[in-house]
Amino acid sequence: MLPKTPYELLAERLKAMADPNRIRIISLLVYGERTACQLNRDVKVTQPTLSHHMKILCGMGVVCCRRQGVRRLYSLNTDGLRSLAGHLLQVAAYADAQRRNPDSAADPPAPPAIFARQQDEQQMEELFQSINRAAQAAHKEQTL
Questions:
Q1: How many CA atoms lie within 13 A of 79 on its CB side?
Q2: Which residue has the higher pLDDT, 74 or 102?
């Protein structure tokens, strides 16, 4: 089997996020760690369905799971959420730059390597700094 392209990895993550129950789970985890029983009660799905959603969210790196005795405790992996948001912000910054200079021959950004499961924190910080600089420059140009 061939390795997945960055585009395929991004598509998988976006598809996984496109489920109302998964979005609800993420919104509940914003408030802190939850057990499977707590999530099951709040999301109102069967236990097998919740397990399926949690497997997908953990697999895409958005949710972390740890065992405490016989219980599983789930929490948000904010780095996973940032990596997903980071690429979308990068695409938006590129689109803004293209609107300002349509003759630019720059290639659109490919999904960065941050879509791999493990990510170097320095690369993540550099990516966010670059995205912030591009967003600030775009905002500055819009206000002129």
A1: 15
A2: 74
Q: Is there a contact between 62 and 76 (Cβ–Cβ < 8 Å)? A: yes
The owner of tokens 């016989």 is 70
Pick from 84, 88, 80, 81: which is nearest to 134 by CA? 88
Q: Cα–Cα distance between 62 and 138 in angstroms, integer?
A: 29
Distances (CA, A) of 77 to 30, 86, 99: 10, 14, 34
Report the amino acid identity of residue 102: P
Q: Is the pLDDT of residue 85 over 60?
A: yes
Q: What's residue 30's pLDDT? A: 92
3-state secondary structure at position 71? strand
More confident residue, 124 or 86: 86
